[in-house]
Amino acid sequence: xxxxxxxxxxxxxxxxxxxxxxxxxxxxxxxxxxxxxxxxxxxxxxxxxxxxxxxxxxxxxxxxxxxxxxxxx
Length: 73
Fold this sequence. Notes:
This protein is of the alpha+beta class. The protein contains 3 helices and 2 strands; from the N terminus they run βααβα.
């Protein structure tokens, strides 16, 4: 799962709450087997093309962005 911090229609906080509710209901280790949540700085609603830039590590983006794309703890 991913959500852009700049989403002007749906708050990323709702997506965080949903993800945390899954963890609370099923357990973190179970959820980790099938889901991850990434919060992407500067990405708005329905920015599908930009989703391809999401990496699964907290290293710097290959596009030169100084903001890492990290999994929600």
